[in-house]
Design brief:
It contains 8 helices and no strands. By secondary structure, the protein is mainly α. Helix 2 runs parallel beside helix 4, helix 4 packs antiparallel against helix 5 and helix 6 packs across helix 8. The longest helix has about 35 residues. The radius of gyration is 17 Å and the shape is globular.
Length: about 170
């Protein structure tokens, strides 16, 4: 778990352009997240995933804002259209694997550690708020309601789960 904590802290301080979740690590991340007997290890992996998704989506948002400013400054362009969100909502295969692995942990594996559960809901929440395609995939999978019902420990966890589910529902209806 110390290695995951170090990696989590390292990516939290990472600079733009770093690949915070290399494809070569996905199998290890998901294995440690869903199959480790040690709750501390699952907590550390969940923290790593939280930081990875937060850093990735933050950088994408900054890139998007930079592109929008650049478009506004260029006065000679012909109708820049409203394609500002072009490619911003596409999930890579890596993030689809993470999304499915997190849902698997919440629904199939039946995670019991409350800290891990909270971090996993945060990961799903950030993904759903940042990527429309993530919200739609979560909705298509049809597992959110089951995950919410399984999240019974503590009022805060249940509230968090319901908020994420409501956000996904909102995104999918618009």
């Amino acid at each position: 778990s110390m290695a995951w904590c170090c990696l989590s802290n390292a990516i939290a301080k990472s600079h733009h352009g770093i690949n915070v979740l290399p494809e070569s690590m996905i199998e290890t991340v998901l294995h440690d997240l869903n199959f480790s007997d040690r709750p501390q290890l699952r907590q550390a992996v969940a923290a790593y995933l939280y930081n990875a998704v937060f850093i990735t989506t933050s950088h994408q948002k900054q890139d998007h804002e930079h592109k929008k400013k650049k478009k506004r400054r260029s006065s000679n362009t012909i109708n820049n259209a409203d394609n500002d969100n072009e490619n911003d909502n596409e999930l890579t295969d890596i993030w689809v694997s993470v999304l499915c692995g997190v849902m698997d942990g919440l629904v199939t594996i039946d995670e019991t550690d409350t800290i891990t559960i909270q971090r996993l809901w945060w990961v799903l929440g950030i993904m759903a708020r940042s990527w429309t395609s993530a919200a739609k995939l979560l909705d298509d999978l049809g597992m959110i309601e089951t995950a919410v019902h399984r999240t019974t420990d503590g009022t805060e966890l249940r509230t968090l789960a319901k908020e994420v589910a409501q956000w996904i529902d909102h995104v999918c209806k618009t």
